[in-house]
Amino acid sequence: MNLMSGLFNNKKAKALQDEVAEFHALKLEIDKARCVVEYTPSGEFLTVNQNWLTALGYQASEMIGRHHFDFITQEERVTSQMQGLWDKLSAGSNDTGQYRFVAKDGQIHWFQGYFSPIPNAKGQIYKVTSYMTDITKDKQKAADFEGQISAISKSQAVVEFSMDGKILNANQNFLDIVGYSANEVVGKFSSMFNDPNTNNAGEAADLWQKLSRGEYQSGQFKHLGKGGKEIWMQASYNPIVDIYGKPVSVVKYATDITQQKTRDNDYLCQIEAIKKAQGVISLGLDGTILEANSIYLNMLGYAEGELVGKHVSIVLDPSYAKSESYSSLWQKLVSGGTDAGQYKRIAKNGKEVWIQASYNPIYDLNGKPVKIVNYTIDITEQRMRALDHAGQIAAINKIQGVVEFDLIGKILAVNDNFAAVTGYSQTEIVGNHHSMFVEPSYRNSQEYKAFWDRLGRGEAEVGQYKRIGKGGKEIWLQASYNAILDMNGKPFKVVKYATDITEQHNAAAALENAVVETQTIIESAKAGDLSSRVPLEGKTGAIAALCDGVNALMDKMTEVIIQVKEA
Question: What is the DSSP letter of 472?
């Protein structure tokens, strides 16, 4: 019996020894992995392990014997978590949670763990052991994440969805954009923001299939807000996974780009409208043709493949392409400058084509030119017509007097021919009123006023006009006064084209006077008075010869009559 009892006791002792050994090994492992501290039931430090000391930067001697509260902040001591903590522990109750301690360098450290009261054989609490893990880095990381998320929430619209697309929550930014309250959206499906008139159900289904697989999605999305308001968002859909990597929800971060999208669409429509009306060619900074629209291609007679990839000099006059002027223009453009004007181009068939064009640098997001866009209009026909008109006007300017007036008669410009006819210099004429060339009696007449009223209304005047030159010289002009109209058909100036006919006018007057004098002589002769003769003073040329012939005839008639009487 004693033998059996001894064997039993030995087995029991052995089991107890094994249990103690296991407990000791476990304690060592815990000691290696955790921050372990032993306190008195009232909170004074009894022992601290190396992990604890390393975490807070103290020596054991700096902590043993001091109270737990000596290593927390004043603010922490009065928190609900700390109030009554040691009364609770000394009474045998555990405490679990996250705790803050002040390290030797004054920094706050966070620990996750628990305080465990340890009873003796009599069941009395004789110490309290805490097992803690330093979670300061995790806490800082979490705080950083939380701060970032908070910052994102302040600046962006944020919505959380379940994996079937149901809205779990939405921040105020999102609600403000869509115009709904939280109660109106939470619990509803994301499809409430889809446009029912757009056949995008397949796209939406594809989006949620990808999200359910944990695939991140981003882009620009069109939604409808309250009242059908169209909204565009730059958004990302971010699947949130659990510890097993399985998606459990989706968080959407979005920015309202409706205004930008509207503006971009407006710009795009304007550009497309320009491309429909004008020739457009895009050039690299080295002059390589990147693209050309159909209008530009048709204008020069090329196919797209014949221009794209080639240097722009292919459509330039070779001499101009090699000129210093063109080199300076290109340097100006690649430096970010613009240029506009009329330019000559050479079509595929060698024909000259004139364009009204602008060169416009296109910049990247850093303000650096990346290409040049040239907007062009074919003005070949207009230019040829303008050159023809200019040639005609130049020819007129060579042979006629030309004067420009405003609508009330102020002289704006005058050519050399007109100045020479009047005897004035151009500087003596320009800026004065047309009335400087008319007699005072006519200048103040209603007839003269009516003349300028008609011109001011755009009516033309043509005829022979008596004008007064420098020094009172009488001038006769064959002239036309022509109203020049603006693009709206409204007169804005008057141009006068004039030919000096003073000599012809004076000759005609002299001839008329000679005829009258001759008729008078003839009438006198009919009445029997053969003594009158046509005066020759001031008469020249054919008129003088005519009058002299009439006088000779009268002399001959007189001689014959005298002879008859004497016979």
Answer: G
